[in-house]
UniProtKB/TrEMBL annotation:
<comment type="similarity">
    <text>Belongs to the SusD family.</text>
</comment>
<feature type="signal peptide">
    <location>
        <begin position="1"/>
        <end position="20"/>
    </location>
</feature>
<dbReference type="InterPro" id="IPR012944">
    <property type="entry name" value="SusD_RagB_dom"/>
</dbReference>
<dbReference type="InterPro" id="IPR033985">
    <property type="entry name" value="SusD-like_N"/>
</dbReference>
<feature type="domain" description="RagB/SusD">
    <location>
        <begin position="343"/>
        <end position="487"/>
    </location>
</feature>
<dbReference type="Pfam" id="PF14322">
    <property type="entry name" value="SusD-like_3"/>
</dbReference>
<dbReference type="InterPro" id="IPR011990">
    <property type="entry name" value="TPR-like_helical_dom_sf"/>
</dbReference>
<keyword id="KW-0472">Membrane</keyword>
<feature type="domain" description="SusD-like N-terminal">
    <location>
        <begin position="69"/>
        <end position="225"/>
    </location>
</feature>
<protein>
    <submittedName>
        <fullName>Carbohydrate-binding protein SusD</fullName>
    </submittedName>
</protein>
<dbReference type="Pfam" id="PF07980">
    <property type="entry name" value="SusD_RagB"/>
</dbReference>
<dbReference type="GO" id="GO:0009279">
    <property type="term" value="C:cell outer membrane"/>
</dbReference>
<keyword id="KW-0732">Signal</keyword>
<keyword id="KW-0998">Cell outer membrane</keyword>
Length: 487
């Protein structure tokens, strides 16, 4: 849950990529805009809080205005459902476009996620453009804003490829900047600069709901791994986190998700139960019988098989058979109404207004990225440092050697292959929106998703590795914004 209080709940109206030429027509009178806001340190802090709000997104079951951004709350559509991890119930509606690999440029989730990321960027830019108001807290505020902006651009470039680069406040007349796609390499350079600044500006925080040095180090390492370069720098960043001893794996995998004040979570998006402004509904969407007769996000047979074979103790806290629909398997990492059989207490009296936080970076991911950095694109490794990180993950999952048979060392890892690492990432981080990005980063997305598509009667092709640019944005650009191939 969030442990910091919002200083001020303001509607901050600023131009965004998705606003278009009709932005602020008529000019609103009930908000502070333009040169009048912000004008002091307190108001600047409220803008910074609004950047976190933008990442948090709006609970669509509480606030039903379709024009609102839902950000993190809908990310599973464009990540997990676009992979071989989850699917819709029967390929229905816009959700079904992801598991069938028939995503259209008019898909509402594609547009929502795109505009949500630019909402984060726009508000972060407003903070950075007024950083001189921050006084002695300037470095920390700048670091947080740049971390959040870097995260938003990282989400965009991985999902859409070349995208417009907005690095400051933008005027309505600046249509060329809003709609000119910039090369992925330049976007990554910009992201790296933001994360590097955050590393130099931030320190330890008392809550994972705010950006920290370790969060920036972990995300920068992931950027380097995604680029397939700077493996040494990535390893160094990850070892800084490991050697800091600020974080550790929870002894019980369940506690990662249901004891949120834990030492494993490095950066999370906080939510507050039964609060129309700060609750979330992805728990209800993922749990088919919770607050709804059916949800939209079910576990695939392939993910079930992987968890059953390789998940160990993690499997029971990652998936379960839906009691109301016994032929379906659901995600259970964010159960808001509890589960007595699994020892999970209720966290929200109304599951459609849940308070379970979303984890963006946790220590287990750091350990697995550490192995990946040491592999450095190679086929396998016997590095003792890599083995130690990998073994720590497996031990927590109950895959250690049999304590009653010390001569049985079958589960002691002596070599790690890229395939081993990809499997371990899948079962450790299942349904946490990593799978599609991992497949792309490991260079196996086309092969894996082709096989998955063929087995399930879908229509995957290589062009499905990127989402389409939203058609709304293309129309708004009057021809300036180009579409990705295949759409």
């Amino acid at each position: 849950m969030k442990t910091f209080k919002r200083l001020l709940m303001l509607l901050i109206v600023v131009s965004t990529v998705s606003c278009g030429d009709d932005f602020l027509e008529p000019v609103p009178t009930a908000v502070l805009v333009g040169e009048t806001f912000p004008n002091n340190a307190e108001e600047l802090e409220s803008v910074l809080v609004s950047v976190y709000d933008a990442l948090q997104g709006v609970n669509s079951l509480e606030l039903t205005d379709a024009s609102l951004n839902h950000a993190q709350q809908i990310e599973f559509y464009v990540t997990e459902m676009l992979s071989d991890n989850t699917r819709s119930k029967s390929g229905e509606g816009e959700a079904g476009q992801f598991d069938n690999f028939t995503v259209q440029p008019t898909n509402g989730f594609v547009f929502d996620y795109y505009r949500s990321m630019y909402d984060i960027i726009t508000k972060a830019n407003l903070v950075l453009d007024n950083i001189d108001l921050a006084g002695e807290d300037a470095a920390t505020i700048e670091g947080e804003a740049r971390f959040l902006r870097g995260l938003a651009y990282f989400n965009l470039v991985r999902s859409y490829g070349d995208v417009p680069l907005i690095d400051g406040p933008i005027l309505i007349s600046d249509s060329e900047a809003q709609f000119t796609r910039i090369a992925t390499s330049d976007i990554y350079a910009f992201i790296i600069e933001d994360f590097q600044n955050a590393i130099g500006s931030l320190d330890v925080t008392s809550t994972p709901n705010r950006a920290s040095k370790a969060a920036a180090q972990g995300m920068l390492a992931k950027v380097y791994l995604t680029q397939g370069t700077n493996y040494g720098e990535a390893q160094g960043l990850l070892e800084d986190i490991i050697n800091s001893e600020q974080y550790a794996l929870e002894a019980d995998f369940r506690d990662v998700f249901f004891n949120e004040a834990n030492g494993e979570n490095i950066f999370t998006v906080g939510y507050v139960a039964s609060n129309s402004l700060e609750s979330q509904n992805f728990s209800a969407e993922m749990l088919n019988g919770v607050g709804r007769t059916s949800g939209v996000n079910y576990v695939t047979d392939e993910a079930i098989a992987a968890l059953d074979e390789f998940g160990g103790d993690r499997a029971q806290y990652s998936k379960r058979v839906d009691a109301q629909q016994p032929t379906q398997t659901q995600v259970v990492k964010w159960i808001p109404n509890g589960d007595a059989d699994l020892g999970i207490a209720e966290t929200s009296s109304d599951p459609t207004s849940a308070g379970n936080d979303w984890i963006i970076l946790r220590y287990a991911d750091v350990l697995l990225m550490h192995v990946e950095a040491i592999l450095a694109g190679g086929a396998q490794t016997t590095s003792s440092n890599a083995l130690a990180s990998f073994q720590e993950i497996r031990d927590r999952a109950g895959l250690a050697d049999d304590p009653d048979n010390p001569d049985d060392d079958a589960n002691t890892v002596t070599v790690i292959t890229r395939d081993d690492l990809l499997v371990e990432r899948r079962v450790e981080l299942a349904f946490e929106n990593h799978r599609i990005h991992d497949l792309r980063r490991f260079g196996v997305a086309q092969d894996v998703l082709t096989a998955f598509s063929n087995a399930n009667g879908h229509s995957f092709s290589a062009t499905d590795l990127l989402l389409p640019i939203p058609q709304f944005e293309i129309n708004l650009s009057n021809g300036l914004l180009s579409q990705n191939p295949g759409y």
